Amino acid sequence: MRAPHFFLAAVLLGFAVTARAVDPVAESIDIHLAAHRDGRAAHSFDPSGYTGDLSALPVGVFDSGIGGLTVLEAILTIDAFHNDTLKPGPDGLPDFENERFLYLGDQANMPYGNYAKAGKTDYLRELILKDAIFLLGNRYHSEGVVHHDKPPVKALVIACNTATAYGLEDLKAAVKRWDLPVIVVGVVEAGARGLLEADSPGAIGVMATVGTCDSGVYPRTIQGTLGLAGRGVATITQQGSPDLAAVIEGDPSRKQTVQEQVAIDVRQLVENHRASQPAGNAKPLSTIVLGCTHFPLVGREIDAAFASLREDPVLAPYIAETRHYVDPAEWTARQLFRELAAAKLRRRGAPGAGEKDRLFLSIADPTLSGKRLNPDGSLTDAYKYGRETGSFVEDTLVVPMTRAALPAAGKKLVSEKLPAVWERIE
Questions:
Q1: Of 279, 300, 330, which closes a domain?
Q2: Are 115 and 123 in contact (CB under 8 A)?
Q3: What is the CATH number of the domain that holds 55?
Q4: Are residues 211 and 289 in the same domain?
Q5: Would you say 268 and 239 are in contact if contact means Cβ atoms under 8 Å apart?
């Protein structure tokens, strides 16, 4: 019974479609968009804004919270290409010096990793598509008023490992289905491509969150990327940390120091790898993928933990003497540059005085009934993970990100570790 509704929605949106199996998440999104083509309603956008030269539009970046700001920092500061010739190599200028950016941190609905555990994978997929739709549209809230003056974006960067794992293919398919000339870049995919630069005969270790590891996205994407490049099957070991990202953010509920938590997680990765290797013929961990947006911030501590463990003669065979680290944020920035250049979407000339980067956060709708809200105004877990797909009521509101609105731990992290981003927050 779903196909006729989807076909009608597709026709209204101007899609060319053929009869095929339909995903219910995609169907409900498309029907909603077809009914709100002017982009005035929540979770909608006006597709007529995607005609003509789009090069002056900003780049959109989104994450489940503020962790993706580390990816934005990498994009803002990277100098890996010559801006005039586009050739690889630094030229002393930021690669994206003329671009402007929009960022969305879906703080109200985080952590994304918990949705799969709660059996709500489809709801997570819908959230990811709604994040992208926010960036494609013009609507946001500020001081209790709905505004429609946000520009659309020419590229969508998924700066969240979990969102990439569960939503990258959905978003690529949606952009194609909606006939939008918009680039889509995912942090996992870009990070896997960074491994092509690490010509190491050893094994690959992936340090990430539990949700990212449970999805299997890094091993799957790494093997596919290396396979397409003619490389052999890689030896990959993962370690999902439930605590390190929170410790890095300064979460007061976590009692370990960064060094203590890093030591715990690195040891567990090495032990996992040791258990998976044949006795007497182990491949040492030589390339480490920092598969959480927070982890590159403690790269020195991570390498020091590996060096310390290598002093143990029992563990030394499983750790290479020199480790190579892959920061997916850096490779996301590189991929974004290449794709904007290939599509001839790089901005020509610096933004005008009124054109600035704009950062946003989601918050729980403060008018929700008390049973849906915690005392601090956040969504209760029972409500958050009990929601069903197909609803387009705003139970969370997207508002401008300000320094005052950042949680205390997040404010400390951004102000001390992400200076380019901090400068751009109101």
A1: 330
A2: yes
A3: 3.40.50.1860
A4: yes
A5: yes
Backbone angles phi, psi at 225, to 5 degrees: -65, -45
Same domain, 172 and 195: no
Residues 6+ apart with CB under 8 A from 316: 310
Cis amide prior to 111 (ω within 30 degrees):
yes
Q: Which of 295, 330, 365 is the last residue of a domain?
A: 330
pLDDT at residue 200 tops 80: no
Same domain, 316 and 380: no
**Three-class SS state of 275:** helix
Q: Which domain holds residue 356?
A: 42-189+332-424
What is the per-residue pLDDT across 232-271, written as a single tens digit (0 to 9) for each?
A: 899 999 999 999 998 998 888 888 999 999 999 999 999 9
Task: Say yes or no: 182 and 201 in one domain.
Answer: no
CA angle 254, 256, 262 (to 5 degrees): 115
pLDDT tens digits along 313-349: 999 999 999 999 999 999 999 999 999 999 999 998 8
Q: What's the CA gap between 338 and 286, in Å, rounded?
A: 27
* Rounded percentage of the chain residues whose pLDDT exceeds 90: 79
pLDDT band of residue 199 (cuts 50, 70, 90) is low
Are 300 and 412 in the same domain?
A: no
Question: Taking 70 as the threshold, does the pLDDT of residue 3 lie above it?
Answer: no
